[in-house]
UniProtKB/TrEMBL annotation:
Keywords: Membrane, Transmembrane, Transmembrane helix. The lineage of its organism: Bacteria, Bacillati, Actinomycetota, Actinomycetes, Kitasatosporales. It comes from the Bacteria. This is Uncharacterized protein. The chain crosses the membrane at residues 26-45, 57-76, 83-100, 112-130. It comes from Kitasatospora atroaurantiaca.
Length: 143
């Protein structure tokens, strides 16, 4: 019994360390994946830069997501106490992005694409970031 119970915390700790080493790369990769999508959105605004419409809003929101993910990757890499609030804020950004994408899509193929993107990418990322925020709370408690 003592051998198995002693192995479990060590295995969990090793798994946790591996995950924390990989997480900054995953966050950076997610941010880099958003850049081509922002390029697609820029091409769709078709000369309406500065106009007050949804296309420009989506570009701004996606840029905020890229900046937040890259900043979060840097903080997680250093196990900084600011990781938890930034992960929570970034989670909210992705959840809002999913909500507004679906709610503003036309009832056609756009709606199907927005729903697919929300359920396959944006909401899972938001959940992962919310969990990361909860997990990194202990970093904030350290002096």
């Amino acid at each position: 019994m003592s051998l198995r119970t002693a192995e479990i915390p060590d295995r969990l700790r090793q798994s946790e360390e591996r995950t924390l080493r990989r997480l900054p790369r995953l966050l950076t990769f997610a941010a880099l994946l958003l850049i081509p999508w922002i390029g697609v959105l820029v091409l769709q605004i078709d000369g309406r830069v500065g106009a007050r419409d949804f296309a420009n809003s989506w570009i701004g929101l996606d840029l905020f997501e890229v900046i937040a993910l890259l900043s979060l990757a840097a903080l997680v890499r250093r196990r900084h106490r600011g990781s938890s609030p930034l992960a929570a804020a970034t989670s909210v950004l992705f959840a809002l992005d999913a909500y507004f994408d679906v709610m503003s899509a036309a009832p056609s193929l756009d709606y199907l694409f927005a729903s697919l993107l929300a359920y396959v990418a944006e909401l899972p990322i938001a959940l992962l970031l919310a969990r990361l925020s909860w997990y990194t709370l202990r970093w904030a408690a350290q002096p």
